[in-house]
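Entry:
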Amino acid sequence: MVEIEYKNTRVKLGATDLVYEPAEDSFLLADAALEEAEPGMHILEIGAGSGFVSTVLRTNVKGIRVLATEINPHAASCAKANDVEVIRTDLFRGLKPENRKTSFDLILFNPPYLPTSEEEKVPGWLNYAFDGGASGRETLDRFLDEVRNYLSPGGKIMVLISSITGLEAVKEKMEKLGFEVDVVGRKKVSFEELMVVRGELL
């Protein structure tokens, strides 16, 4: 199994035709999460893929508890190979809402954010990593509609979006759901700008 090294962390990667390979979006979210994570936090990563972000966090921030979910069975196996505690499920489906064990201080998500037509879909499980629906926000909207049920009081979320996704639409939805919203990371990559949007429960 191929490995990469990032921030003192060795991360095993799955087959690139089955598991999303960490890229600029993964690195940006990991860096922003490292700034936010503190010892003692209970952290959830939704759609963890290979487990890259969770593994980098666990290596660099002592005393945190990290749980992940992932729908792609190949990616979930890869995350497990990186010693990430992962539940194979769609978004939050495998967790019980408003339960002390599933109440988190910080929830991370790098959703599929590219607007995707039927013709643009990728075959197989890898499509879940890329297919953001017609708006590019379909999976993110599902996440935002549920996420409050899994946050501790004063909890935070961090989501990775692209300028193509529509920052204003994302901010507006998050604010309507009761979050104070900031952009805490940015990186220009070819034709788009990647952003990490943080929401803190008011």
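DSSP finds six helices and nine strands in the chain.
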